[in-house]
Fold these 4 entries.
Entry 1:
Amino acid sequence: MDYIKKINDKLTVIVSEGDALSASFAIMVGTGSVNENDKTNGLSHFIEHMNFKGTNEMSAFDISNALEMCGANFNAYTGADVTCYYAQTLSENLEKAFSVFSSAVFKSIYPSAELEKEKNVILEEINMSLDSPEDVCYDLAALSYFGSNGYGRTILGSSENVKSFTKSDILNYLSKYYVAENICIAFTGNVSVDSCLELVSNYVVPYVSFEAKAKEEERNLINLKQNLFKDKDIEQAHFCLTFSSPNYLDKNRIASEIATTILGGGMSSRLFQKVREELGLSYSVYATSSRFKDVGTTSIYAGVNPTSVDDAYNAILEVVSNLVKSGISDDEFIKVKNQIKSSTVFSLERPMSKAQLFSKYYINTGKLYSVNERLAHLDLVSKSDVIDALSYFDVNNMSTAIVGKNVKPLK
């Protein structure tokens, strides 16, 4: 049974009781790089790291050691629109694990020595990302679509920004966004409603503001249709074509999801079969969507030999054009519906994934996730709905990005 409660009409708690032997929880904060500016870009991610570096009661080692003594698996991530802290533990150790974990998130003191050490860690993470052409390509693709603000910003920020961050910057950001109305905590697995509410009341409520309101930064939501390139001395050329698509709340989202999967969502997809299987031009070629509550995009990605860029690009345009003109087959429609149904069901069988899904869904929609509703909406989508959604793949209104040695803009 799934349960939702707002504490003092602000802080959201979701509890999904299940038959698992473990207990999982996710603390989802509705902020990420989209709420940063030129000087603070990278701060959301920096805070995510620093929130494990010590409280008044525990050192960084004490935190990780205590969680591992509970048998917990734990981690965190920062996105464009959310920052998530999550863990899975033995059910009998839930209170201990949650008390330690929530202290790390809401009671960190950001010691200066840890601050400086973690800057170096993140600088290495930035270097690692710069060594990943696919990461560089996706960052460039976001910039080509959105420009240099909002969703066009990188998650990690620049090295210069990271070096400049101070404890004051962290506290100022926390006061704006780590507030009760902007937080959803979801528990799943072998848990009970009463015990979870008690955990949040004891270990979170005293340490978050119920008065402050989160303020979103202004951001561009329009496709700028730029064609950007970045010269990089690597073996392959990596490129992205990015189209507008429905946002998280749009009623056409599921039809678009089906269309995107048919185009490039699996080994039997149109792109995989043409570009890889038939032409042998790429090892990795696919289509994927990013959806936020106010905007959505769909990107086609390919990594190819530099001498094959034109052939691969033209082959992809041909696949897209043929799909838009000829529509989809009955078999494709049925197959992809089943793929999406199965991925929906599979994700709910993993308690840690379920906690993240429930909390993020609430942050984006203000509603409790319902798998039955999701499957019912999927059943209601018709083949003609999916054919209508193919109009999003407009090659005359796309942004492009390419990374590689001596590359030029695709358009």
Note: Residues 112-130 form the longest helix (19 residues).
Entry 2:
Amino acid sequence: MNPLLSGRSPYALVTDDDIIIRMFAREALEQVGWEVEEAENGRDACLAFENVHRMWCCST
């Protein structure tokens, strides 16, 4: 199901080892209504992806 069509907020997983990049990406996405989770590396991103069913992935 597409969250943009269902009225639910889209969900992004922002992955980067640079905290500044993650902060800017989070802020930009949240300002337009996205729910955001961050991961510092690929392993953490994979774990987060496995744990969330309504995931839209955004990688920097």
Note: The longest strand covers residues 11-15.
Entry 3:
Amino acid sequence: MAIQNFIRDHWRIEDNSHWILDNFFKEDANQTKEKNSVKNYAAMRRMALNQWNL
């Protein structure tokens, strides 16, 4: 039972994180094409999200 709760909690956190990234940062609508730019913008959005969660 404990492993099931752990897995559910993990996915709940992941779902909340992706919801915030999509709704506030419009991550799904991002049209960046260059390989390094995609990674850099994703890292910047996640850093902003982490700062918000502090």
Note: The longest helix spans residues 2-25.
Entry 4:
Amino acid sequence: MAELPKSPENRPKVYSAEKVRQGDIILRKPWQRIVFLLGLVIPFVLLLIWLVVRHWSS
């Protein structure tokens, strides 16, 4: 593992856990909301289709 630089100005900044927490998802435009929701919904729809096809084919 690499050592930290000796001088304080060359060291990486240290942030508190409060400052680095994840932010909000901001979807301002309708197309952004649609793409986001499709990204959440499509995997479940594909899983259901796969399960139905698998059930009917056996």
Note: The first helix runs from residue 30 to 57.
